[in-house]
Design brief:
single chain; alpha/beta; Spore Coat Polysaccharide Biosynthesis Protein SpsA, Chain A; 17 helices
Length: 494
């Protein structure tokens, strides 16, 4: 083969490899859907009573905070409304703030101390280790056996402890996770799209993993840990941006079991701007790549879990890496279409690639099951939301790709918390001092990509290739939508 043929072969190989990885991910999602459906058939809520006389029912609620003046009062008020004997409850606000948030916390702490609450305002000398560092620094300040964690934007239900703590009667349970709800799901098209994706995670993925006895993760908030489990797993670590995922896997590799309780819903605020969402997505995807790099060897050599659990654990940790292969497919498909007339191998590869449409079918079915359990049975409404969601996540693929690459090359970065708003009025978004939308190089590249894929869409239509026309239409819409939202936010802020 000459050098040109080698190039054709390399491009075709990478294209099929990327499609194969996406297919594996889709098969994994479909398998979890089967387990989810099996779990629904045997769901029986058994009453479990909590014995308040047991000494080890002392509970510590930790609230790690950094500059959250818009939501901190709502958080403290909601946590102090949780039903539990005050003599068994300690609330610690771990405050790393350097703005007026600290003053608001001090005022609220004083208010609730007068009402009989055991509540403390705690600060460190530095923000070292960020959230993980704060949790690690203050973990031994209490003798409580159970530790609850809530992020700043959460509003837990009053029965949170009464419903979740009884699951710790099983001595092997190390963590119990509640489901996330959404305070502002219907506020905008952006929040609806996020809810669509998160609902899939908290129904199909979490319940499927629980039912299949696969490793699952603590979601960083709205869950309860057994303190002994945290200690046994090596404690909180700031070596990744997803300290929750990291500790979750280390704990389960030690033999601890996790429990997911979807009936208990802890509401939270969804990011209200693409800029805020990108901050969250970058942290999750970079942290996911860091955890994969850190944990893959311990998973493979572990004697605590079987081969099936290892396989699904690796697929789980590869979740963020999916964006690498998705973006590869977009670019490679564009290149291969330009080379189709010059090589039979390229033409054959493109035809073979159409077989991988089964990935979309499997994902569509999985998301449909999630939709039915969360929304309604409207198939038309679901299909519209599903393909808009696919387009939107496609539009985020380049940005998330950079996060994954950064995670794999171990490039350190600041733990940037997602800007919170605590408002339902769009005209007040520009007043948020934590949100600073700007024209970044990511945005410029996303605009360029939307233009390139638009040209590919027109080219496909010219040659009456309707399959690739639809494919590039979806991608063009996705990158265009993400670019439009960001440009709009920049002008809104200014």
């Amino acid at each position: 083969m000459n050098i040109e043929q080698y190039i054709y072969f390399g491009l075709c190989f990478l294209y099929i490899l990327s499609l194969s990885f996406i297919l594996i991910y889709s098969i994994g999602a479909f398998t979890l859907t089967i387990y989810f459906l099996r779990a629904q058939k045997k769901k029986i809520k058994l009453p479990i009573e909590l014995d308040f006389k047991i000494k080890n029912n002392l509970v510590l609620i930790q609230l790690p905070i950094y500059n959250e003046k818009y939501v901190i009062e709502r958080l403290i008020d909601s946590v102090c409304q949780i039903e539990y004997p005050l003599d068994l409850l300690q609330i610690d606000i771990l405050d790393d703030s350097d703005d007026e948030t600290s003053e608001l916390i001090a005022s609220k702490v004083e208010e609730y101390k007068k009402k009989g609450f055991s509540i403390e305002h705690k600060k460190r000398n530095s923000r070292k280790g960020y959230k993980a560092g704060a949790l690690k620094h203050f973990i031994d300040d209490s003798d409580c056996e159970y530790i609850v964690i809530f992020d700043a934007d959460f509003v837990p239900p009053k029965n949170f402890l009464l419903e979740l703590l009884p699951h710790f009667k099983n001595k092997n349970i190390g963590m119990v996770q509640s489901r996330w709800g959404h305070l502002n799901q219907n506020q905008s098209s952006l929040t609806k799209l996020q809810a669509f994706g998160l609902n899939f995670h908290f129904t199909i993925e979490h319940e499927g993993r629980n039912e299949g006895n696969y490793l699952m993760n603590f979601n960083g908030t709205a869950g309860i840990w057994r303190k002994k489990c945290i200690k046994d797993a090596g404690g909180w670590s700031e070596t990744t941006l997803t300290e929750d995922l990291d500790l979750s896997y280390r704990a389960q590799l030690k033999g601890w079991k996790f429990k997911y309780v979807p009936e208990i819903i802890s509401d939270a605020e969804l990011p209200m701007t693409v800029q805020a969402l990108k901050v969250q997505q970058y942290r999750w995807n970079k942290g996911g790549a860091q955890c994969l790099k850190k944990l893959i060897k311990p998973i493979i050599i572990s004697k605590e879990i079987n081969f099936r659990q290892k396989l699904f654990a690796i697929i789980h940790l590869l979740g963020s890496t999916t964006y690498v292969f998705v973006f590869n497919v977009f670019i490679l498909c564009l290149l291969l279409l330009l080379l189709r007339s010059k090589s039979e191998l390229v033409d054959w590869t493109l035809k073979l690639g159409s077989v991988f449409f089964v990935s979309t079918i499997l994902l569509c079915y999985s998301y449909w099951i999630s939709w039915k359990s969360n929304q309604s049975t409207s198939k038309i409404s679901f299909l519209v939301n599903f393909f808009i969601y696919l387009a939107f996540t496609s539009g985020l693929s380049f940005y998330n790709l950079t996060a994954v690459i950064s995670g794999f090359i171990s490039k350190s970065s600041e733990f940037k918390r997602t800007p919170k708003f605590n408002t339902r009025k769009k005209n007040k978004l520009k007043l948020n001092c934590y949100s600073t939308p700007k024209i970044s190089y990511h945005l410029i590249i996303e605009i360029v990509l939307s233009f390139l894929f638009f040209l590919a869409m027109i080219n496909s239509l010219y040659y009456l290739d309707f399959i690739t026309f639809l494919f590039f239409s979806l991608i063009t819409y996705g990158f265009g939508m993400v670019s439009y939202f960001q440009i709009k936010e920049v002008f809104l802020k200014n």
